[in-house]
Every structure is written in structure tokens, then in C-alpha cells.
Specification:
There is one protein chain. The chain is built from six helices and twelve strands. The protein is an alpha+beta fold and 237 residues long. A hairpin with a 2-residue loop joins strand 5 and strand 6.
Length: 237
């Protein structure tokens, strides 16, 4: 698998993102997955508000999350079926504004449709990345907050392991794995690499994307007891 960052200029709010991408990546190979920073997607969709105060930010965090728990460092929230800090609302590299996550699945599908036509390719994946923190781990990785054009989860249940034992629960999180691979070379500071080309990835390309395939049922999730203990989620009656 080849993972190549794409250096660009600063992306301006409201600019044409497909045209911006084509300026810096005029051609791609068939079977490529393009990783795009969620920040430029939000700027493309004008999903920003002027920063006024921490009180305003907290209000927006609560409005844009399904559950929210205040911690000493940030708000721990659930948004669109995943845990993230501050409902994905960011003020870094935002020039005095708050950047809010748009509908990243719809944005990924729109990007894929437009770029497929320009690049004249059939199999093209788009994954929109955002930074996240793993429990009890130092540093950030990345997650897929939206994607299109490929299966985001590979189901290995029923397949044999090395010794012939059928796997019982193994699912491979393809979308988040691609996001983290891309984020490692895209950077987190002033690198100006909001794009990344992933070639020869072991993915299954598809025309339709199921945004729910990557959401795991709360009742079966390993971390549900911990989340219930913190009251981030409540027990079902």
C-alpha cells in the first residue's frame, strides 16, 4: 500500500474543493482512495461560526452531539455514532472561528462523484479524516468521519484462523485504518497536507456506501459498561 501526502496552499473558506484538489492532483490511478481533512471539507461547506466565548462553544458542543460529558480537559461526546471530543468542533488553524463538522458522508459522496468524472476512473474511494484520541494512549490518531466508494468494514466472521478455528467476532475497521494511515503523513500542524493519496489498499470498492455499517450496536460494544458507568450513555430500560 502506498500512502502519499499532497502538499497544497491554504484552503480558503467557501472555495471550490473539487477544483482545489484537481489543481494539486490532476491525475490519479484507478483503485485509489483519497483522504481529505475534515477541516477543509467544513470550510468548503462554510460550516464555521465566529468564536465568541467558551460558553458559546459549550452550547454548540451540546447542540451538535447526541450525548456529552464534561471532563477536565474537554467535552467527551457521542456524535454520529462515534466518540469524539467536543463534537468535532475545532478552533485550531481556524483564524478566530469555530469549525463544525458537516455531513461528511454526503460530502464524501459529492467529492467522489465530481472527481470520478474529472479523473476518468471507475474505482475511487474518499475518506474524510479527523483527529481523535484513543483511551489511555498518548497522542492523536485519526478516524473516518465520512467515506464513500468502498466498504468501510470487512467481516471475517466464519473464516478460519491459522489453525483452522473459525473466527467468531472479527471485523476489520477499514475506514478508520485508512484514515490513520493517511493522517500519519498529512500531519497535525503547519504541514499544509490536507490531502493524501492511498494506492493499492486492500479495500473493496463499491458504488453505494452504507453509513451505518461502521456503527457498532451499543448493547454489544466492549466499552458500553464503562460508558454507562460515566453516564455518557444510559442503560436501556
Amino acid at each position: 500500500m502506498n500512502v502519499t501526502p499532497v502538499h497544497t496552499e491554504l484552503f480558503k473558506e467557501g472555495a471550490d474543493l473539487p477544483a482545489f484538489i484537481l489543481r494539486f492532483a490532476p491525475n490519479v490511478e484507478e483503485n485509489t482512495v483519497l483522504a481529505v481533512s475534515s477541516k477543509v471539507v467544513a470550510l468548503w461547506k462554510n460550516n464555521t461560526v465566529p468564536y465568541e466565548s467558551w460558553v458559546q462553544k459549550e452550547r454548540l458542543i451540546k447542540q451538535h452531539s447526541q450525548a456529552a460529558l464534561k471532563t477536565p480537559l474537554a467535552w467527551l461526546t457521542i456524535k454520529d455514532g462515534m466518540i469524539m471530543t467536543n463534537a468535532g468542533i475545532d478552533e485550531s488553524n481556524a483564524k478566530g472561528k469555530l469549525i463544525l463538522l458537516p455531513d461528511c458522508y454526503a460530502a464524501a459522496d459529492e467529492l467522489r462523484t465530481k472527481l470520478k468524472q474529472k479523473w476518468h476512473v471507475q474505482n475511487l474511494g474518499i475518506v474524510i479524516t479527523d483527529s481523535m484520541i484513543l483511551p489511555l494512549r498518548a497522542g492523536v490518531v485519526a478516524a473516518a468521519v465520512g467515506y464513500a466508494g468502498f466498504k468501510g468494514v470487512t467481516d471475517l466472521r466464519g473464516k478460519p484462523d491459522l489453525f483452522g478455528r473459525p473466527l467468531q467476532t472479527t471485523l476489520v475497521d477499514v475506514a478508520d485504518s485508512l484514515a490513520t494511515s493517511a493522517a500519519l503523513v498529512m500531519g497535525e500542524a503547519d504541514e499544509r497536507c490536507p490531502l493524501c493519496m492511498i494506492e493499492n489498499a486492500p479495500v473493496y470498492f463499491t458504488e453505494k456506501t452504507d453509513r451505518n455499517e461502521i456503527k457498532y450496536p451499543v448493547q454489544n460494544d466492549l466499552y458500553t459498561p464503562l460508558l454507562q458507568a460515566t453516564k455518557l450513555i444510559t442503560k436501556e430500560k
